[in-house]
Amino acid sequence: MKKILFNGLGNRGWIGGLYYLKNIIFSCLESEKIKKEYRIVVLIDSAHADIFTCFGNRIDLHIYDGTNKAKLALYEMNLIWLHGVKYCYALELNKIGSLFASRGIFWIPDFQHKTLPEFFQPEELAQGRHGPEDDRTSEYAGIKQ
Questions:
Q1: Do 55 and 29 form a contact (C-beta atoms < 8 A)?
Q2: How far is Cα 63 from Cα 41, in angstroms, rounded to an integer?
Q3: pTM of the entire structure?
Q4: Is residue 12 a contact partner of residue 48, using CB atoms and an 8 Å limit?
Q5: With contact defined as beta carbons under 8 Å apart, do 39 and 58 qualify?
């Protein structure tokens, strides 16, 4: 089974970033395809681990406490190389992951304007962020809509 690593260590200074990760993980766990083919791994420190304990045994929670960047890099490489992580979110792991044929994910697009257009005013849908450039960016990122 392939594994997706969500690195919450980079978001420790912004609690909203941790809850953003939590929402992404929740959404992933709602997908039958993801639950069948992937295992979610979360890397976090002990001070914020409680945010993710609600998922129970549906995720693998790895706690890293420390500030030494070299030790953290070794810990991350261990997760990727020895524990089968194939995809890494967020950007910090792109360089490390590329050494071990893992793929970094640094952007998760927001397609609410396409899937839930009723929540937007017509003029909002016509503006920049919700225009054709989103489709070009999505294609560039390798995302199939």
A1: yes
A2: 11
A3: 0.67
A4: yes
A5: no
